[in-house]
């Protein structure tokens, strides 16, 4: 029963929905009938409005065409200019009605009127400014001024034709006056060309300035066309008379031309150069190197290179001159004359530097300022900068690459002739500076040391080479800024920088060799002393005093003269330590046999030398500075090994096992050669040495898998804690002996 009631309710609901749907359809139909008439009225209104507007436009078009034709015949260009623009605008509304014959006919009449106007205006200009024959009228007419306004509305070709003919007629006198066969056409009178165009522009402004619309930029167009004509004419005459071009004449012409181009840039915007006639160079990124100065100040006489330059704010790049190269481009094929001249000048400059150095001698020591840099290097780079700025104003293409090659050539010549060529010659070696030559002994001969002046000269050359190295790097950066982007990769002064690095290295090696050789006689004397006969331990031995004396003589001079290049003084100290300490240890092995007291005396001497070497960077200086950690590490490691060798020698060799273990523990050296030398120093007999060597080989720690011959192995280095512990024990031992 409930189900039946539900079904009945559903049926009733369906019935109501159907009734609602039927009523909705009837309502929709009723609305359509009501709005049908409204839609028809809307369409009618829109069509009527369009028709009225179109008819009005048609009336305006027809009347305008008639008026246009009449005004054209009467040359009423002032009225035509405004009317023509309106007619053209109205005609655009009839583009979709061109299928209608009457509309098409009106369009053709407008085009015919435009063509007639164009031809008529060109004829008027031809009559007013004939290409040949009669003289130009005294001033422009109002008719031509209005004609220019009409030309703005006509086909752009009409405007271009008017401009072309007027400029051609305006420059016709120039082509006659400066013909190739005329005396004023040559480069030495190039000023007259630019003076002529300046007068013509003034004349144009007075007579024709108001005739042409301002947006035509006629003054700029005349100037640009003058530049193109001048470049063509100069190219022809220079090609014909190439042998007569001298560098002074060429630079004079280029300077006057670039000045004129700069004048154009101040006067005009360059808006007429959009056709690509002017070359726009890419703006290189701003640089902070010391070469970056105002290029207008080419007379700068100094290049200051300081670290503070790198911290200065970057200088904004000056906007490019849009007229740059518009005339001066014609000189680029002849810049080889300039490059050859600079090659000759730089060659003479280097020869003058060599002659001055021979005549005046080395620079006077200037310890207060940290050593004297040769003044010739600053002169060289000032000249380089002047050439670079001058050449970049002439061209940023291949001539800059050619100039860079010249720079490279004379940087190398300066390095070899002025710097390396004036380094003092050593008497100890004629085949170069080698470690072998430094280790050769000169028994029975007095070692010739460098004088104070020679040491100062070496330091001066080192400082100069460092200055040249830094400045060459900045020169390379500046050259890359000046040259075209496509040519940047071809500028590379790495080879020249390496050359100056070699000069620096050779200078440091000379200083090391001199001090090292001065210490050789003292070390030889140490190895010849009868150490087995020393009976008591006293003060430091005479050979130690001699070594310290040489160090105190040389090092303060070198330090004071290298005060401005501290890192190279540190290199000198490190190289000397790396050379002297192994040599000292080798001479130590030659001291044989040694008694217990002799070993104690040697230990005292070794400690004295160690203290002096640790203090070497600041020896003789009123200002005590902490030695660089890298240097201290080398001295401590090397001299500690010497002390450990002597400590092993002092240890009793009985029992042998204890002696061998003590040796391995203290020296951490598995080389049988070193152990053999220790036994020789102790003065053991060959039979004892043989058994001791066998025991040493047995007691060696087992080598790791894959290791080489055990005889060539070295134990791992002791830890810093172990080293410091040994050093403290050694110091206590020395104090006890003293």
From TrEMBL:
Coiled coil: 3-44
Compositionally biased region (Polar residues): 711-722
InterPro entries the record matches: Vps53, Vps53_C, Vps53_C_sf, Vps53_N
Pfam families named in the record: VPS53_C (PF16854), Vps53_N (PF04100)
Highest taxon, organism lineage: Eukaryota
Subcellular location: Endosome membrane; Golgi apparatus, trans-Golgi network membrane; Recycling endosome
Domain Vps53 N-terminal per the UniProt entry, residue ranges: 1-357
Keyword line: Coiled coil, Endosome, Golgi apparatus, Membrane, Protein transport, Transport
Domain Vps53 C-terminal: 600-684
Gene Ontology process terms (BP): lysosomal transport; protein transport; retrograde transport, endosome to Golgi
Membrane topology: Peripheral membrane protein
Cellular component, GO, one term: GARP complex
Start and end residues of each stretch annotated as Disordered: 277-299, 699-728
Family affiliation: Belongs to the VPS53 family.
Protein name: Vacuolar protein sorting-associated protein 53 homolog
Provenance organism: Crypturellus undulatus
